[in-house]
Amino acid sequence: MRRGLALFLLCLAWVSAPPVQAETMHGVIIVVVDGDTVLFKPDHAHTSGRTFLKVRLAGIDAPETDQPYGGAATRELAARVLNRRVAVTSVATDVYGRTIAHIQVAGHEVGTELVQSGFAWAAARSRHTSKLAVAQRQARLDQRGLWQGAAPVPPWEWRRTHPKGERNRF
Predict the structure, then answer these.
(1) Local confidence band at 48 (pLDDT 50, 70, 90 cut-offs)
(2) Which H or E element spans position 56?
(3) Which of 75, 84, 98, 159 is catalytic?
(4) Distance CA 38, CA 99 (A)
(5) I want to staple 101 with a disulfide (CB 3.0 to 4.6 A). Which of 60, 90, 150, 154 is the partner?
(6) Catalytic one among 2, 23, 50, 64?
(7) Of 129, 85, 130, 103, nearest to 37 (Cα)?
């Protein structure tokens, strides 16, 4: 009975908790790590005390660096954001301490553009799944980017079937 009451109260607290407020920061992308991860230097000091943040683009998943089209995805992201002023709107922090965020350059959402150009997949758990799914479907029909390949493998499957220690670079 006590355990059930404790579980009920915990669930009630979770349901009634206020939603996390998205924080928008402005600054410059100083490094592109891979096709969906960057280092961001905010204009103003961040509350974490770091001079830069590791940011993973929300709603997308790009090919791994050692996966076919991984290098192309990294170059595509770099061409769009490296050394450019951006707006970063955080939506969460992942288990690795990265800020999960939407990045905009001159009003354009970079993650959506990567999916449209065929250099990333729409992440299945994204809140923007329908918009990104439409972009992905069109990129596939137009055979843009990774969709030129015979049978592109989604990054989440690649990671599962190619453990880091066993991966080759492409």
Answers:
(1) low
(2) strand 53-57
(3) 98
(4) 10
(5) 90
(6) 64
(7) 103
Look at strands 99-105 and 53-57 and give their pairing: parallel
Query: Band of the pLDDT at 17, cuts 50, 70, 90?
Result: very low
pLDDT digits (tens, 9 = 90+) for 119-154: 999 987 655 568 899 999 999 999 999 999 889 999
DSSP at 148: G
Residue 159's contacts (CB-CB under 8 Å, 6 or more residues apart) are 64
Rounded Cα distance, 134 and 140, in Å: 10
pLDDT of 164 reads 76
Catalytic residue flag (residue 98):
yes
Known catalytic residue: 137?
no
Reply yes or no on whether 56 is catalytic: yes
DSSP-derived 3-state class of residue 38: strand
Bridge partner residues of 86 (DSSP): 27
Query: Mean pLDDT over residues 58-69, rounded?
Result: 95
Residue 114: the pLDDT is: 98
